[in-house]
Amino acid sequence: GAPGEKALWTEADKDGFGTSTTTGSKVWYTLDDGELTEVYYPDLGTPSARNLEFVVTDGRTFTETEREDARHEVKLVDRRSLTYRQVNTSRSGRWRTTKTYATDPARAAVLVDVEFESLTGRPYRLYAVYDPGLSNGGDDDTGTSGQGELIATDDRAASALVTAPSLRRTSSGFKGASDGWTDLADDHRMDWTYSFAPDGNVVQTGETALTGLRGNRRMQLALGFGEAGRDASAVARRSLHAGFKRAARSYADGWHEYLSDLRRPRSVAGMETEYDVSLMVLAALEDKTYRGGAIASPSMAWVWGNLVNYSGPYHLVWSRDLYQAATAQLAAGDRGAAERALDYLWEPQQKPDGCFPQNSNLDGSPHWPNLQLDEVAYPVVMSWQLRRFDAATYGHVQRAIGCILANGPDSQERWENAEGYSPATIAAEIAALVTGADIAQRNGDNAAAARWLETADEWEASLERWTVTENGPLADHPYYVRLTVDGKANAGTIYTIADGGPTVDQRSVVDPSFLELVRFGVKAPDDPNILRTLPVVDRELSELTPNGRFWHRYNHDGYGETAAGNPFPGTPEDPGIGRLWPIFAGERGEYELAA
């Protein structure tokens, strides 16, 4: 059945995410829908496993999977550690699996403590079905099976799955043709024990020793990674020998120590767990090889996970996202993380012209080519926030400001799909000019400081002409628009909304991002045009949900599945529908505090 069906990455709505605080254990795990989903190795830009789940059968009449045939519950075992437990109870009432996860702080292995229970008093058979996706893709792996071990390799990495008690039988096949689910679903028995499956989308299967009856319910599983099969095998077996309890205790202790060094404000009362987990997730997003580099998300957005078979843009470093994460960590007291992030941004990512790439790979090499000037501005502002006034930092600031002056104020805006005069981007640019001028003065460069402040004043004075319409169709008073393509906010210039959207008058499109003007101090919270725009944006873009009010990016946004439930990008007759973005609730909260 080589090479097997194409494998898509799993859904992005993760229930759990974890890694140890140690930099030597370069492995991260994610959880969703009752199973282990993407595992990242050797860095956060490289998913190297797609999923691992258990399949249950009585060998005669039924075969059921955790993902499709069970009710799922996920628990945070320790609210001050990224230690998660999944409990899957079959809808048929026959069985339950309980799985607790940690990564080995000493090596690149995911450890799982597994309990399998029969709820009927009858013995069942439990099979592990593992889909590797080494080196950011599952279409070129080779699987070998035998001696109670499942090993997968490609030309750059390897994984090994072992258990205690040991797997009874093993097999490596190809997805949709000779994999374990196809085998078991046919006659509820494991008929295939293939020892070798080369160069394809390999799925591996192991029959465990568990029956679900008393005395035969528990096992430990180790999924180890390395550069070659023997390396991964050694990692997995050493982790298994050391044991889950020891690794889990050390794993949790690392997170306890991390949180103990941070302050928790009084305002967190009643939300301590949410606060602590948020901080731990931010810390876990920092790569362990390229220190300071943090990816956008350990998941694939739906469009990338389902249209392509490689790691998407959420596994890249974005100056914009890294600024948001690092300043949150700075506010929480983790200054070291913010310092590393700034060092990362200044050193490997900077282009010779002082500009930044739209995004980069973790090693700092540019990925997408577009220029977004807010991403050039953020490191300048963060340097000032961190009080980094040294000469070396000032050299970076000079080059970044040079990029802004040479290319601004119009730019591709924060949503990546339109260029023009954006209130949000211009807010970041002005903030960079002002904070950069302060750094220049502290380095004795008063002439540069004066030029930069003069430009900041000129852009601020022109901001409303560029971005506030006085004759737009959404209100009988002035309001900020999403952007203007020509810098003429009262002109009915048209442009086409990206992602399958319509061609519209630029005065008819609004965006909550104008509040960046307040967050960066360019406009006061009670500025008349800020106050006038708030009800327009709320009316056009917000919806009240069971979890509170949320906002869309902008009207006519087509970046989403269609009304009929079809995949993006849809058609003119069935276009995509823009979704609610939780970031706006956070940004609106920051505005309300400022107000």
Structural class of the helix and strand makeup? alpha+beta
Low-confidence stretches: none
What percent strand? 15-25%
The CA-CA distance between the termini, in Å, is 63 Å
What overall geometry do the principal axes of the alpha carbons give?
elongated
E-strand count: 26
The tally of helices reads 15
Overall mean pLDDT score?
95
Main β-sheet, spatial strand arrangement:
6-7-8-9-17-13-12-11-15
Helicity range of the residues?
Answer: 25-40%
Rg, please?
A: 26 Å
Major β-sheet profile: 9 strands, antiparallel
Keyword list:
595 residues, nine-stranded antiparallel β-sheet, eight-stranded antiparallel β-sheet, 32% helix, elongated
Would you kindly provide a brief summary of this structure?
It contains 15 helices and 26 strands. The protein is an alpha+beta fold.
Question: How does this model look, in words?
Answer:
The chain is 32% helix and 24% strand. With 595 residues, it is α+β, with helices and mostly antiparallel strands. The longest helix has 22 residues, at 446-467. The mean pLDDT is 95.
